From TrEMBL:
Signal peptide: none annotated. It is found in: Cell membrane. GO terms for molecular function: phosphate transmembrane transporter activity. This is Phosphate transport system permease protein. One of its GO terms (biological process) is phosphate ion transport. Belongs to the binding-protein-dependent transport system permease family. CysTW subfamily. GO terms for cellular component: plasma membrane. It comes from Solirubrobacter ginsenosidimutans. The chain crosses the membrane at residues 24-52, 72-101, 113-137, 168-191, 224-247, 282-303. Pfam families: BPD_transp_1. The gene is pstC. It is a multi-pass membrane protein. Part of the binding-protein-dependent transport system for phosphate; probably responsible for the translocation of the substrate across the membrane. CDD domains: TM_PBP2.
């Protein structure tokens, strides 16, 4: 049996600055890159300039009267906690759903399911917030009471459990549902591009379906899973209305996820307080936004380094 020789695809022609089309395309691409960088720099400059009066103001002028750091710290803490809960819940579930759609479900089921998952991303955040406060919160009261009674020795479930269910745990679950379609769509689009020869080779060597997925699909899509997780994390960090509707805020810094006293998030706090603020209070809110901007930038930079390391490996 002979094996037909597969010719390598012809390489793309080199860039020729003498061609009008190449010059136009190069200028267009460069201009787009410059616009993105200029926009990012403009946003950062705006936040720094508007936050500077709060940074240099006396601590008694900041809301709470204890200084800017103590004003922003509970908000930053709540933002990180809510986003962490969302990522911990959403990423394993999203990867599992993506694998089911791309490699396990029959085509007649995979196609409608992929449409449904994509439609979840189109639901407005306020709808998720109403669902969380009217359905998920009350439904989770029994579970939160059980957690307080049985695993209350953990600081996360110390209790007493909230009677309304408007807790940080519920807010994190709502965020997880919101970022689920983003993570699922990105990972699924990469999983389906796993080379067939790798999967067929693993099957030919006697690997089971799960072993084939573990040895070929997951390594191939590792960088996509990280990228999708960071996209979902960015959505969770900046989510406003859903958290503002669901969360019962007290301003306390606590790891207790099921009590009625919870820190707010930066985005939700800005949305709720900005219309009624003036003077230095507005600058303090913008300073909180600057912290959120910096956290998001650091997270995405760290994710990019991890992805580049995975690509080199």
């Amino acid at each position: 049996m002979t094996v037909a020789h597969i010719q390598d695809p012809e390489p793309l022609p080199d860039f020729n600055p003498g061609r009008k089309g190449d010059r136009f395309f190069a200028g267009l691409a460069t201009g787009a890159g410059v616009i993105i960088l200029a926009t990012l720099a403009g946003v950062a400059l705006f936040l720094i300039v508007k936050a500077w009066p709060a940074i240099t103001a006396d601590g008694t002028q900041i809301p709470g009267g204890e200084g800017l750091v103590k004003y922003i710290w509970p908000l930053a803490f709540g933002t990180i906690v809510a986003s962490t809960i969302a990522i911990v819940i959403a990423v394993p579930l999203a990867v599992s759903v993506a694998l089911f759609i791309s490699h396990i479900a029959p085509p007649r089921l995979a196609q409608p399911l992929s449409y449904i998952v994509d439609l979840l991303a189109a639901i407005p955040s306020v709808i998720y917030g109403l669902w969380g406060v009217a359905v998920l919160g009350p439904a989770s009261v029994g579970l939160q009471e059980w957690l307080a009674d049985n695993v209350g020795w953990l600081p996360f479930f110390k209790g007493p459990a909230s009677a309304t269910g408007r807790t940080m745990l519920v807010a994190g679950v709502v965020l997880a549902v919101m970022i689920l379609p983003i993570v699922t769509s990105v990972t699924r689009s990469v999983f389906v591009q796993t080379p067939r020869r790798l999967q067929e080779g693993a099957l030919a060597l006697g690997a089971t379906r799960w072993e084939t997925i573990k040895l070929t699909v997951l390594p191939f899509g590792r960088s996509a899973m990280i990228s999708a997780s960071m996209l979902g994390l960015g959505r969770a960090l900046g989510e406003t209305m859903a958290v503002a509707i669901v969360l019962s805020v007290s301003g306390d810094v606590t790891f207790n996820l099921i009590s009625s006293g919870n820190p707010s998030t930066i985005a939700a706090h800005i949305a709720l307080d900005f219309p009624e603020s003036s003077g230095v209070k507005v600058n303090a809110l913008i300073a909180a936004g600057l912290v959120l901007f910096a956290v998001t930038l650091l997270v995405n930079t760290a994710a990019r380094k991890v992805i580049n390391r995975q690509i080199r490996i």
